[in-house]
Bifunctional ligase/repressor BirA (Viridibacillus soli), 327 residues
Amino acid sequence: MKATLKNEIIKRLVEADGKPISGQQLADEFGISRTAIWKHMKQLQEKGYDFETVKKRGYILTATPDTVDDAKITVALETEKFGHRIIYEESMTSTQTIAHNQAQDGASEGTIVICEEQTAGRGRMMREWKSTKGKGIWMSVIFRPEIPPYEAPQFTLVAAVALTKAIDDVTGVRPEIKWPNDLLIQGKKCTGILTELQADPDRVNAIIMGIGINVNHEQADFDEEIKDIATSLKIVSGKHIDRAALVARILYYLEIYSAQYVKEGFEPIKSEWESYSCTIGSRIRATTLQDVFIGKAIGITKDGVLELQLDDGTIKGIYSADITLEK
Ligand code: BTX
């Protein structure tokens, strides 16, 4: 079955808001036979959607699955272009790998790749990213900004603001941003961002942004290696979260903030970033590829560079590092 038609049928039934729609009406609207509609409904049932059939009057949608499939996201979307093309599979190696291939093949801005489970999810520097089945948001978003490659790290900061706002809207819990790419709640990591590039020396062709969010994990869903450092939105909010609705909200803010960034730069977003940050004002240890620096994080520049005041009073600009809090 064509994914888009399946999505349209579900969307139509959601919009009907509990009123039945007949098989004939759906058949007429989508230009296919009633038997074809019936077959689609059967396949949707196999995917976890359910319908009440009211005699002679038609179908009412009564249940949707707890997934991030394309139909569920489409129904919740409020964007102009982000999320209008969704590549969804239950299991993927890494959404990043697939999104890179899609971007190389010309996929447009706002295309997303999303799954229920990653078998080879990755973080920065090829670290492993644990992606438990059916519990999180494991997604890559393709951007096509007209910016030079050296500005791309700022995209991570812009995305962190978008994610923080979306999580706050949907769950009522506001994470803190740990520079550059983590969101924490009560000091534990709930979200990681991985910004990768396809670029020529002077021009970005695509940014492939990987977003991993622990959403409906119980404490027992975390492996030994991360159980003390990770948390989920369900653990902290006490609520089961509709992951597809959260994806839609994330795309809403990513569309707004990325457009603003490309037009006006990071500066107008900087104060919002700072208000969500748990890094600024703290004494931290920054481990870069070459060195370790310890000092007080005093701010970020208008270009998103972290400013560290070292113990001898000098200010060091940190472009990329892993940071931990120092006592
Ligand atoms: P990072 O390198 O900053 O963080 C990776 C580290 O985080 C790991 O070494 C581990 O200690 C810890 N970790 C691993 N899994 C989890 C988890 N589920 N929750 C909390 N902590 C964890 C952060 O990299 C960027 C992660 C991006 C993940 C997305 S998911 C969709 C996309 N596809 C893909 O393969 N990666 C991205």
